[in-house]
Amino acid sequence: MPQFSSKAEQLAKKAEDYPSIFGSINLTGIRENVVEILKLIGRDGIFREYTLHDTNHIDALLALVDKLIPSDTATKMRTADWLLIVLSCYFHDLGMLVTKNEFESRDTCVEFQTFKDWLLAGDKGKDYQEALDKLTQRDQEEFLYQEFVRKYHAKRIFQWI
Fold first, then answer.
1. CA–CA dist 44, 53 (Å, integer)
2. Axis crossing angle, helix 55-68 with helix 27-38, rounded to the nearest 10
3. Could you tell me which residue, 94 or 42, shows the higher pLDDT?
């Protein structure tokens, strides 16, 4: 069982003491599952060159939360406030997970095709196309899909949750 080093997580964990409000929430279990899912980002090529979005990334965000929330505000916050903040830190990048099947089916994704048309339109599209022309066809497709997912990863996780 991990020891929560951030004040935000310690306060969010108190939700476990209120099953009539929060059900059988298990913050440790949620964190462990999220960490395992985050390890999958980049495994099939998409986002392989991005900074790892692992435990260290989550802990860095939670450390920022601890610094950003003034103590007088923190004392007024309720367990639900802390839980929502912590879960937001946990879940915020899960939308960057791309399965091999999703990538291979990208040509049937209307949203991706619309995004690609938008990205490659006009003067900015010319700049993108010049850069893309230097890549292999597979790398071009990975880059474009990666850009699509990066732009919409928050919307993706919102839909999944």
1. 15
2. 130
3. 94
